[in-house]
Design brief:
Blueprint lengths: L3 E3 L4 E3 L8 E11 L4 E10 L2 E6 L10 E4 L4 E4 L1 E6 L12 H10 L2 E6 L10 H11 L5 E4 L15 H7 L14 H14 L3 E3 L32 H18 L3 E3 L5 H13 L3 E5 L1 H5 L21 H12 L5 E2 L8 H4 L16 H10 L6 H15 L15 E11 L18 E11 L2 E6 L2
Helix pairs in contact: 4-5, 5-6, 6-8
Length: 451
Amino acid sequence: MKSLKNKKSRQFIYSTHNPIQSILIKNGRVIDPINGIDEIINIYIKNGIIHAISKEASLDFNPERTIDASNMWVVPGLMDMHVHLREPGYEYKETIETGSCAAAAGGFTSIACMPNTNPVLDNKSIIQYVLNCGKACPCRIYPVGSITKKLRGIEISPFSVLQNAGVKAFSDDGKSVNKSDIMLNALLISKELNVPILAHCEDTDLADKNINYVHFNKNSQSSKPIIQSMPAVSEGVMVARDILLAEFTGAHLHICHVSTEGSVALIRWAKDRGINVSCETCPHYFVFTDEDCASSDTNKKMNPPLRSENDRKAIIKGLSDGTIDVIASDHAPHSTQDKNVDFSKAPFGVIGMETMVGAVIAFLTNKQILSPKEFVNKMSIMPNKILGLSGGSLTPQSTADITIIDPKSKWKVDSSLFFSKSRNAIFDGMDLTGFARFTLLGGKLVYERKL
């Protein structure tokens, strides 16, 4: 991939063939919970690995570049485990290249891409296509295979073949597996292969997306219906079913984009019971509510939809008490033409990789809901652990995937400057705090935000 530049935002993504082989990151606050590090200390990088972490000034090390990380966090490379890259099939919305550039700009060294492409990620050749495209990209790309062939919910995909091709998890994201016997068998196979099932939980019989009526918030002064007929119970019913199936099979169930108070309570119960369940939520669910949809802004339309204030508070409580393991973006790009229609006709989805760090710091860390250590846990350690990847730490001799974050600078979101091909950003125009200043992939600087 050639070097990309965005002069307006003074941001740059350099080629992954950057020749620099040794870097010193000095004076940064290194936050590495796995190794018990949270202090001002230097990191020495050589030949793509973390050579040493030390307070010493030199270690006889002559770096080709020195990064002064004073007043910044130096953390294990961030991982977004829920991303839609749209390629193959919908390249007018996003491509593997543009999506990976958006990821690097957001501070992510790894992403997992969902299978609802065209063709679906349900066969070896398409998995290899994604992996081959990702080789020249500025972040690591891990494809998620579909649970069922063509996402139809009828026949299970060849899990073993897809795992051997490079798949790290399975999901029909965008759709639930409605037939309980199919989901049961998928969980049994996933347990045998020791990979998680990433479940989109929605009872479609209770969530008729073709009915454009029902939900008026009880506290709303608006006379407009503010979301479609997608009640919270449609999520909770399927969360409950999948939790019980996970208990029965012993498989690892990961519940995607949790949005309701009921779902958080069910997951908390499941964890207390010892069921092998993990889950994620997204920034829009702890920042916005269904009241924000009263303006009919299609950039606030996603699936699951924005919920009530009680749901938002429950998501925050779930994050603070550890019920919710991961913060993911559910980055779902759509073209401006697709979104520039009546709310009822607009596609579901918002983009989020380039705003996630700023949203989490502004609305969680700065409000003492999550500490910097917990930030790293939910955005690096846990997504890597759930997917069985080796990232999430700054252990010496490990691959130098590192994110350097400026946690204090305020900035206004301008989606026109994004690296993503799409502009459907829910945080567009808002003031956030904190961003990725540098992203290092395999010891190479692939992104730098100029100040």
